[in-house]
Amino acid sequence: MRMKFSPSKLGTIIFVGVAGALISSQIVYPAKRVLEAFSGLILAYLIWNFSTLSALWLLLIIYPFPFTISLGNSTFIFMVLIFIIYLLRVAARKSTIHSDRQFNLPVILMVMSYLISFYNLRGTPEFIGFGLAHTGNFIASIFLFYMLINFVNDERKLHKTVRISVITCAIIMLFTVLELFFPGRRIIPGWLYTEHKAQLVMKDIRMTGVFHDYELGAEYFAMNVPILFFLAVRARRLLTRGMFVFLLILDFVLLFTTMTRGAFISLTIGMVYMAYLSRRDLNIVQLGMIGGALVGLVFIVDTLVAQYTISGSLFGRLVATTFERGFMPETRVVAWGGAFARGLEHPFIGHGPGWDFSKGIGVKYWPHNVYLFYFNITGLFGLSAFIFLLVRLFKATLSGCRSSLVRDPFPEAFMKVLHVLLVIFVIDQIKIEYLRNNIYMYFVWFFFGLIAATRNVIRSNLAAKSDTGSA
Questions:
Q1: How many angstroms separate the Cα of 123 from the Cα of each of 132, 336, 347, 349, 361?
Q2: Are strands 323-324 and 328-329 parallel, antiparallel or unpaired?
Q3: Residue 386 counted as domain residue
Q4: pLDDT in tens, 29-64
Q5: I need a labelling partner for 83 at 20 to 30 A (CA). Which of 182, 327, 328, 455 fits?
Q6: What predicted TM-score, i.e. pTM, was given to this entire model?
Q7: How many domains does the chain have?
């Protein structure tokens, strides 16, 4: 019996052969431009041949690893591309789109504050370039927010999206581990690299991770601790639970390698708050065992990181912390003072979404406070809109406070985790600003989008139960 050999099969064989040869060559001799083109072709193929949700899931995995192109970074381009194709499908009536009344108004006000603030955007080309790039990434982050609201519309998609975020976290952990053991190496020239310079004594080095910022990297690891803990306690299979526990411990270790005090303090407050919200699920013995294990883990991890890695002791930095005026860390005095004074120059609409690095210590430093950052770039108008959004997000997460992490359905239980994450984020952003990094910005709006999507899934499930009961 002869086997038919169609042209489609021949095309598939040729494609696989070419792709295999290309991948093999890049493993041996990686080239930035070839890898950029290959990544773009893969994403374009997925967008055209699969659902936009599948393309978005892929982008959620690769977004922390952008490469620079003439129009900006690849994350920005791919995010806008997916959103445009989604709008084309809506126009062709192949998809539907809806907004969310709970969050539309604060988001619209934030966009308006950015546009109005351009009135005061003046300065060097570097200043204006930063402002334009920052605004573009901010708009693309909002696209991500609304795509999550539209695409993640049932429990299965929500659960898979959370799993996808864990895959991203695992890849970021792997990169940070490579940074820890091989600092200052260029993994792929011009693309994946670590910033530490080789020196005679490599010690007390703070890991910066894929965001090249140890404070934002620390916040990322801190915000993934409750998620990994939640997935571990809900896992039914022993192997799956063991995998999540391993990732949880590794995430905790890498948090310590950043030597960042604020993220650790924020995480501690968040976990204590989660324990309080979950007090009905735990008796005093279980609470004591979990608390004791976590305290022991903290001291063991700090000792191991300080003695056996190129990083240092987080507790050592905590003990050495000094405060001025009773509450302000000495490392924030200049930054907060300069940012507040600069904000008062244009208090209502701000200086515009740029940042001038050329005028000395008072305005050269980042504010190291997201609320002061909004005050500087968009004035009280933009700051009020951002706080308005946080209030709406906080109200949306309140529905999960009484849920059980183990017994209740996934969306309700996960909403409790999101509520705790929002508390950690709001506290930690007092000493750092997510807006300083055009890639980390996407993670924050992904987190905001998860809150909105989870709220809608919970409402849909309740409506479905109500319809079933009435029937």
A1: 13, 22, 18, 17, 17
A2: antiparallel
A3: yes
A4: 455 556 556 666 666 666 656 677 888 888 899 899
A5: 455
A6: 0.87
A7: 2
